Amino acid sequence: MSVRLADGKVVNPEGVEVNASLQCNMRCQSCAHLSPLYRRENADPAEIHDTLSVLARSYHASYAKIMGGEPLLHPDVVGLIEAVRATGISDTILVATNGTLLHRAPERFWEAVDSLEISVYPSRTLAPEEVERYRALARDHGVSLLVNYYGHFRAVYSESGTDAPGLVRDVFDTCKLAHFWNSHTVYDGWLYRCPQSVFMPRQLRDGGWDPHVDGLRIEEGPDFLERLHRFLTGADPLRACRNCLGSVGKLHPHQERPRAGWQVTERLEELVDYPFLEVCKDDITADDGCVERSLSAPVGGA
Fold first, then answer.
1. Predicted model pTM
2. How far apart are CA 67 and CA 48, in angstroms?
3. Is the pLDDT of residue 153 over 80?
4. 93: nearest Cα among 83, 107, 104, 106
5. Distances from the Cα of 83 to the Cα of 50, 200, 239, angstroms
6. What are the C-alpha distances in Å from 43 to residues 1, 23, 61, 272?
7. Phi, psi (rounded to 5 degrees) for 290
8. How far apart are CA 138 and CA 158, in angstroms?
9. Among residues 209, 204, 203, 207, which one has the least CA distance to residue 159?
């Protein structure tokens, strides 16, 4: 489903994303948020509250997705959850985590969150008894839980990128984050259509480009609603699409790589999964092959 105008607001049927911490305790190759390249940077709950309060006057999402990096690295993740909820920006609050630090989450965390997504990776898997413990905690606190077991990632970006307009267009048109998941990302007072347009220009070794090119400043104003809707439904590729593989990067087994060797030096054309690109042209919802199995525990489930 796409964004729409309703009751004087832009409505996102999916989620608005807030990155609690830009760093991560893992170094997954092809992390869409480029977290292995980031040093410590945590979101300020007061600043997030102020930004989302302004945005909420013109925008509403089904859920607010608090993620990272690894959100449980944030020293006050519960305070951040509460700050987001207080803005009324969304119906529910979802936290996405790799689960490796979930054992130290306080009781207040389980009381604060509505939904929890755990991504389990081969390099740091969770024991079955840990998963069952989290299922029990979720059930006891009325939290909807989804555990995704990943076996593969797709290549996400290229340092050198491409200037081929046809390929840039294809990457944009088949991007699940921009057109299917509606992964609208709030960062530093700006709104972006996808996380890559936030993080890539800040981490490319050549200095990247002005990241605000792909963003919209969140502000008051009588014309903001119109500009917001136009921004989120624009048909032109983003500047980030020249260096991004969107949803159609080549599939590879999950692995962690050291920070020093994490950058991707191949040309973007060499990293495209062309058969899957053709699949996505026909069906953008096609399974990308990354999740091997899922375990869900909806509210009230056994």
1. 0.95
2. 13
3. yes
4. 83
5. 9, 27, 31
6. 29, 11, 20, 33
7. -85, -40
8. 39
9. 204
